Amino acid sequence: MRLQKYLALAGIASRRKAEELIVAGRVSVDGHVVRELGTSVEGNARVTVDAKRARAVSKFTYLIMNKPASVMTTMRDPQGRRTIVDLIPKGTPRVVPVGRLDYDTSGVLLLTNDGELAFKLTHPRFGVEKTYRARVRGQLTQRAMQALQAGVELEEFRAGGAKLRVIAARGDHTIVDVTIHEGKYRQVRRMFEALGHPVLDLQRMRLGPLALGALAAGAVRSLTGREIAALRAATAKTPRQWKTSLSGVRPAPKERSST
Predict the structure, then answer these.
(1) Which of 42, 105, 150, 218 has the largest CB neighbor count within 10 A?
(2) Does one domain contain both 128 and 46?
(3) 102 is an active site residue
(4) Residue 173 — pLDDT band, cuts 50, 70, 90?
């Protein structure tokens, strides 16, 4: 097995990122630093990355969590705040979050040890859509909506155009679904803030074809086979094809709580 594939199976990184780790001299096999990309390893080889053991897995784990607000999307927090580790059921194989949700953002969070899929779901060139439900201050004007759809100039980059669907407009706030292809730091919040509509609440409803559904806040469940297949298909298709790939997908089984 090629070393970069081994690292991907270990959930360390995608194959492309694994190649970068190898070339940088951060990977060792049986105590020897390896920099050659064509290196083959046996199943009993001792592979380390930055002196930490990496173990390839033959079966991947895929979980969806409805991350509550006020929970860190990290495995540990120096400030002692609650993290997603506190919600993952005991005995679960080592998994990592695919992307991040802000501390004060809730909703869909995918956890897996499939490094290759994780890379494809988060890299902008694969165009995987993320849909959020935002409650923003004030009434969204037509001008503001057009600006969001065209793209918003932020401090260090221009956010790409978003798809919008107004759910409700109630006096001092508006509830709107916003779909983006990027996933930069606090992007949705910053886009609305730039237009004078601060976000009051934010929840991610969908990651590509993976929908939140009725999963309770703080709950975690395994993905169905169809959901896994749909996620894989999403990285090879344009966004407008996702609806077709999901036709016939049945509702997921009742979730199991992590508490």
Answers:
(1) 105
(2) no
(3) yes
(4) very high
